[in-house]
Amino acid sequence: MEKKNWYSEPLAEIARALTVDLAAGLSAGEAASRLERYGPNKLDEKPPRTFLQRFIDQMKDTMIVILLVAAAVSLGISVYHASIGESPDWIEPIVILLIVVINGVLGVMQESKAEAALDALKKMSMPQSKVRRDGAVAVVDSSVLVPGDVILLDAGDIVPADARIVEGASLKSDESALTGESVPVDKDAKADIPDGAPLGDRTNMLYSGNTVTYGRGVAIVVATGMETEMGHIATLIGAEGTNETPLQRKLSQLGKYLGIAALLICLAIFGIGTYEGLPLMEMFMTAISLAVAAIPEGLPAIVTIVLAMGVRRMVAKHAIIRRLPAVETLGSTSVICSDKTGTLTQNRMTVVKLYTGDGLEAFGDDTSPDAVSLIRFGTLCSDGRIEREGDAEKHIGDPTETAIVAAALRTGETKDELEAEHPRVGEVPFDSDRKLMTTVHKDGDGYLVIVKGAPDVLLSRCTSGDVGAASRANDEMSEQALRVLAVGRKSIESLPATFAPDDLERDLSFVGLIGMIDPPREEVRDSIAECDRAGIRTVMITGDHVVTASAIARELGILHDGETAITGAQLAALSEEELGANIETYRVYARVSPSDKIRIVKAWQAHGQIVAMTGDGVNDAPALKAADIGCAMGITGTEVSKGAADMILTDDNFATIVAAVREGRGIYDNIRKAVRFLLSCNLGEIVTVFAAMLLWHESPLLPIQILWINLVTDSFPALALGMEAIEPDIMNRKPRGKDESIFSGGVGTATVLQGLMIGILTLIAYYVGTRGGLANGGLPLGETMAFSVLAFSQLVQSFNVRSSHSLFKVGLFSNKHMVQAVLLSLALMLVILLVPFLRTIFKVIPMNGTEWGIVLALSTTPLFLSEAAKAVKRKA
Question: Is 162 a catalytic residue?
Answer without folding.
Answer: no
